[in-house]
Design brief:
It is a single chain. The chain is of the alpha+beta class. It has 4 domains: 8-45 and 264-363, no CATH class; 79-182, PAS domain (Beta-Lactamase, 2-Layer Sandwich), CATH 3.30.450.20; 185-262, Beta-Lactamase (2-Layer Sandwich); 377-531, Reverse transcriptase/Diguanylate cyclase domain (Alpha-Beta Plaits). Helices cover 53% and strands 20% of the residues. The protein contains 15 helices and 17 strands. The chain has helices at 6-78, 81-88, 96-109, 137-143, 184-192, 259-262, 264-288, 296-310, 326-366, 377-394, 408-415, 417-434, 458-474, 501-517, 526-531; strands at residues 113-119, 125-130, 150-157, 160-168, 175-181, 199-203, 209-212, 230-234, 237-246, 251-258, 398-405, 440-445, 448-454, 476-477, 486-487, 490-496, 523-525. It has a 5-stranded antiparallel sheet with strand order 2-1-5-4-3. A 5-stranded antiparallel sheet has the order 7-6-10-9-8. The radius of gyration is 35 Å and the shape is elongated.
């Protein structure tokens, strides 16, 4: 056979080889794109399937704890010695003002309640403080029979919605009732969303929003009780939502997020992948048709590299020839694409680390008071529970100190809230300087601070409380038009933990109230009050 017959064979080989490479490039690019998109989509789906139920169960726990705390609040108020002694006194009418003063003091410390009402056995108002609406006769008659602490369903009073937290007063037929503000629930739900793109709502049995943002229809959501997410149509767009029952009142918690927002990374990944892969396929096809049989080996090396990359391997590279031709260009392009994919993976890992760090910061913020930078009420309650358990186990003493700035409302009213906030900051700094590193110092609420002192007996607690009182007296704020810096005093109550956290707190609270009654700017302990 003559040599003239060989070029068609070589030409056909090149065509077939080029066509094969083109098909392989198309398939490889498609597989890479599909794997990338499906990987991102699956990752987002798994995150949503985990994040939504976690947010719902966490929010439900927070709501249950919040209502449980309200029951504990009202039960604690109802068991206060001032109320019980006033109602048991033969001259209880004369002690009504004293009971009203105590309830007013309590209402000032607990902004969750609009009003506090004490009903006698016939359902008549014995004393009431706060801005709440008047209770109708039928409601008062029903509340007068309260036998245990409980939270009522929503009641409408003069166009406003409340819930009533009720508790019986011991040794009397009287009952105590707190009008609970529902707007306080909105802040609780906003804190529980765990994502700025998601929204939480609390709805009643008819699907009407009680608190939070407008939720999607409940009949389109799964009712498996596990918070399984589903895609529904809400407000003219697709939305990812899930619901979880709130057994306390038969309500439901709903979390929802726009579908396009949740899966925005998928669309971006598809566009980037197809654009990049299309350019690579076109370049590979044009180069492949110019190759001959002698170029099969480097092209097969490229195909093998694409296969490994499609299988998810990292750090894949192919040899770059020194010929300076199309094969070299294709190899460099492939290596560049592999490097970009590796860089993309690295960037995704870095973003995940940044997200974890941001979550840690958010967690720290959730237990820190924004004004004073002290620990907040939530952190203090957690530490109180932990330290009380340790005290039960080790039998070491545990002291609780409550400090309340005297006449702080008058300071706010006369000088303004900005001066009041600066004073709180100064007080916090002075208190931090005298407490020990083992003590837990927190802003309990408003102008009240709490100190938990482990391994501290009564004498040590009184000494520490006196240091706190003196430290507060050193706090001062310079005010324009005032000749001298403004300072404050504080009243301090001390008690020792004796196996019951609520009783310990109530005794410290009574000691604090006794300090207020004794002229303020002093320290009183529950043991002194018991001896008195």
């Amino acid at each position: 056979m003559s040599s003239s017959a060989r070029p068609p064979i070589l030409s056909g080989l090149a065509v077939h080889f080029g066509a094969l490479i083109l098909v392989l490039s198309l398939l490889s690019s498609g597989v890479i794109t599909w794997i990338s998109v499906r990987g991102i989509e699956s990752f987002l789906e798994r995150r949503i399937e985990r994040r939504f139920p976690e947010a719902l169960f966490s929010a439900r726990e927070r709501v249950d704890v919040w209502y449980g705390q309200r029951e504990l609040d009202v039960a604690s108020f109802a068991n206060n010695r001032i109320l019980t002694e006033a109602l048991a006194s033969p001259k209880r009418a004369d002690r009504r003002a004293e009971a009203g003063d105590y309830l007013g003091y309590v209402l000032g410390r607990f902004p969750q309640y609009a009003a506090l009402v004490v009903l006698d056995g016939e359902g008549e108002v014995w004393v009431q403080v706060g801005e709440g609406a008047e209770l109708p006769t039928s409601v008062r008659a029903a509340l007068a029979t309260t036998e245990r602490t409980a939270v009522s369903p929503i009641v409408e009073l003069e166009g406003r919605s409340f819930q009533l937290v009720s508790a019986p007063l011991p040794s009397s037929r009287a009952t105590l009732h707190a009008l609970l503000r529902l707007d306080a629930m909105g802040t609780l739900l906003a804190d529980g969303a765990n994502n700025e793109r998601s929204a939480l709502a609390l709805v009643d049995v008819d699907g009407n929003a009680i608190a939070g943002t407008d939720p999607p229809p409940l009949d389109e959501l799964p009712g498996d009780g596990r918070g399984t997410p589903a895609i529904v149509h809400h407000a003219g767009e697709r939305t990812i939502a899930s619901a979880l029952p709130l057994e306390r009142f038969g309500w439901k918690l709903v979390i929802h997020e726009p579908y396009d927002v949740a899966f925005a990374p998928v669309g971006n990944a598809v566009r980037r992948a197809w654009t990049g892969n299309l350019a690579v396929v076109i370049a590979a096809g044009l180069l492949a048709f110019g190759l001959g049989a002698l170029r099969a080996r480097p092209i097969l090396a490229l195909a093998e590299g694409a296969r490994r990359l499609a299988a998810g391997e990292s750090g894949v590279t192919v040899p770059v020839s020194r010929a300076g031709d199309e094969v070299q260009l294709l190899a460099r392009t492939f290596n560049d694409m592999a490097s970009r994919l590796a860089a993309g993976r690295l960037e995704l890992e870095m973003r995940n680390h940044e997200l974890e760090a941001a979550n840690e910061v958010l967690e720290q913020l959730s237990i820190t008071d924004g004004l004073t930078k002290l620990h907040n009420h939530r952190y203090f309650q957690d530490q109180f529970e932990r330290e009380s358990r340790r005290a039960d186990r080790t039998r070491e003493p545990l002291a609780l100190i409550l400090a309340d700035i005297d006449d702080f409302k008058r300071l706010n009213d006369s000088l303004g809230h900005a001066i009041g906030d600066e004073m709180l900051t100064q007080v916090a700094e002075e208190m931090c300087a005298v407490v020990r590193t083992t003590d837990v110092l927190a802003r309990y609420g408003g102008e009240e601070f709490a100190v938990l002192a482990p391994a501290t007996d009564l004498a040590g607690a009184l000494a520490l409380a006196e240091k706190v009182r003196l430290a507060v007296s050193r706090a001062s704020v310079t005010v324009a038009d005032e000749p001298e810096p403004v300072s404050v005093t504080t009243s301090v109550g001390v008690s020792l933990y004796c196996g019951d956290r609520r009783e310990c707190f109530e005794r410290a609270d009574r000691a604090l109230y006794a300090a207020k009654q004794s002229g303020k700017d002093c320290v009183r302990s529950s043991e002194e009050e018991s001896a008195g």
